[in-house]
Amino acid sequence: MTSRLPEGRALGPSHERVAAVLCDGRTGSGYLLAARLVLTAAHVVGDDDTARAMAVRGSGAQQCDVVWRRHDEECDAALLLSRRALVRPEAAARLQPVTWARLTDESPVRCQAMGFPRAQWGQGRNLDIEHIECALRPASGIVRGRYVLDVKDVSPELASGRSPWEGMSGAALFARGGLLGLIVEAPRNWRHQRLEAIKSRALLDDASFTSAMKRYTGDRPFTVDLSSVSRPPKPFRLAGVLHSTPRDLAVTLRASWAVAREQLFEGRGAARDGSDKVRELSAWLRQFDDSADDVVEADRELTDQWLTDPQPGHDLKVLRLLCRLDPEGEPVWRGTAVTGEMLARACLKGFDNSGPEMELYEALCEGGLLDALAGFTGLRWMAGMQDAWTEAQAAWLRMIERAPGVPGGVSEWARGEAKALLLVGLLTRHRSVAGLRAFGERATPPPAGQVEWYDWMRSRDGGAETAIGWVVRTALAAYAASEFEHAEANKRAGKEAADARLERVLQHAREGRDRDWALLEAERCSFKARLGAVTRAAAWIGMWGVVLVSVPWLVWGWVRPDVAWKVAWEFGVLSLAAFLGRLRGVLRLGAAYRPPVEHLGRWLRDEGFAAGVARVCLIAVLSLVAGVIAHGGFWFVACLVLALVGVLAAAWVGIVQDWDEEYQKRLKEFRSRQDGTVWRDIARDAQSPSPADRAKAYQRFTEQFGGLYPGSKDVAE
């Protein structure tokens, strides 16, 4: 079938489809019409039924069968069917049907071809590819029915004198994206600057060739007519507008993004490999390309691959198409102009937003958007940033995995949202986005040595100028500071809780002490306790009374019994008066009154035996003085002096000692200990996990009740 414009076909000589053909010591070139089908010159394979072929960057040399050949003056071609695919699966998936071309006039045409000429062979006959441009002279070679080509700017010479173009036979000849013929000969009389090729018409008019093509490719050759006569470009309709130039179409894409996406890629009947609208667009774009430019050819083929590739999203396809149409224009994504600062802001808040920033952030995460945007002149500084971002994410995850003690929340954030901030760290290196680099730097990091995992990452982040360093010193600094503040708050709360528990223990201890004190006071003032106190007072004072009465008899009884009797009687009355005078205090003290009647020996040790003897001697002297006075007849004076001296002596020997002072002292000590530090120490030890500390605390607690008055410890227990 013949058409004026090719639709979705292979465009120009692609290096992935160029093949080398090896047969019986002969080397030639070929071109892949399909993953296993190679077109070459018939004289390369000769009369052999098999040959070997290998594609550039393919799967290696493969055995092939010659499935069709024709060798005459007008046609020198053969088809080789490889037993295995000559290209890798991913390359095979990109192969499109070849577009064949027929020349319709005799105007010169610029052509190009790729093959393996001897001039490119390295040492050891290592093959290498050569891409040549030439001018087709349609009026030359008419008699032989071949195309004559003048090689442009290439005139290699070999030291051996052999033709430098040996091995170029079988190379496909392309013009304006169509396969125009097959190079088969290099005439020797043109100084290696002329080649000859058979015409595509010789193949296309051969029914056996088209039948073989149908059998091995599934379709007959698709042909277009070529002419040097310029024709006005056919308009392309999109979004209700006719477009005559790529720039006009770019304007429509920017203004009507959603409509263009729907009509090109989401329309009814759109197949996975592209809709009819995409095929029409590919054909329309080829009108504006210079097919002789290999860079344009590669770019054009790459564009077709992106337009028909089912993997990228529709919006990404529209963006790449816009870059193809108007790379110098403004980058636009879904109708919104894109700048580096916009991308950075989308990363900063996109994951926490449901607006355009969220959509742009999701597109960035899907991949491919950065590379597409880098195709625009204004964003060329972003070239390679997609790979840099991927490498930064990998390094970031390795650091997170090795960092010691990273909290679960930080680790989860680092594996998710943090990758957006890594991109911000990369983008803000450029002067147009540098203003956003201060984001987050106001966060105050925790003091050094307080958050171990943050200090570890800070020492290995590569510095603030790196993407990882920027994230660590901004977002992670805020995380670490928050963790530090939370830990400090927990410490304060724990201390407050401990103080509250301690206060409750102290309060409980004080209440228990008060209860025990009240019980002791009730016990101290009971009738039984007071009766015992009176008994102890009578015994104590009576003991001294016996001493007082006995001493006068020892002093005077030998010489003046009458004087001894008077002094003894006076001392006895004095002892009785001391008892009666002390009785009120004894009743008030009750159980707290504890004279050393029961522990007389301990009292003698505490007071001293010599002091006791001295007191007895003093009583003896008093008895002597009282006896002298009584013997002289001054009975009244003797009684008065004796009473005064007796009271003083009684105080000295402990007859009328004020035991209430000691009780008051103990009472004051009890009240002073109610809020003292002793109680806090006891309460703290009572909460200790050590049984020994708790036992010691209980002992100290019970000892607080000891010493209130003799015998009170037994009550407390």
Topology:
Blueprint: E1 2-3, E2 18-23, E3 26-32, E4 37-40, H1 42-45, E5 50-55, E6 62-71, E7 76-82, H2 89-94, E8 99-103, E9 109-115, E10 130-137, E11 146-151, E12 172-175, E13 178-185, E14 194-199, H3 200-204, H4 207-217, E15 222-226, E16 236-238, E17 241-243, H5 246-255, H6 257-265, H7 276-285, H8 294-308, H9 314-325, E18 332-333, E19 336-337, H10 340-349, H11 356-366, H12 369-373, H13 385-402, H14 408-415, H15 418-427, H16 452-458, H17 467-473, H18 475-524, H19 527-556, H20 561-589, H21 600-607, H22 609-631, H23 635-653, H24 659-673, H25 677-686, H26 691-703, H27 712-716
Parallel strand pairs: 1-15, 8-15
Antiparallel strand pairs: 2-3, 2-5, 3-4, 4-7, 5-6, 6-7, 9-10, 9-12, 10-11, 11-14, 12-13, 13-14, 16-17, 18-19
What attributes does this structure have?
about 50% helix, six-stranded antiparallel β-barrel, disordered C terminus, 27 helices, about 725 residues, disordered N terminus, six-stranded antiparallel beta barrel
Question: What's the gist of this structure?
Answer:
With 717 residues, this protein is of the alpha+beta class.
Tell me the radius of gyration.
59 Å
Helix content estimate: 40-55%
Number of strands: 19
Distance between the termini: 119 Å
Amount of beta strand:
5-15%
| Overall SS class | alpha+beta
Largest sheet: 6 strands, antiparallel, barrel
Model regions low in confidence, pLDDT < 50 over at least 5 residues: 1-11, 268-274, 290-299, 650-658, 705-717
- Helical stretch count? 27
What is the general shape?
A: rod-shaped
Which strand order do you get reading across the main beta sheet? 2-3-4-7-6-5
Mean pLDDT: 75
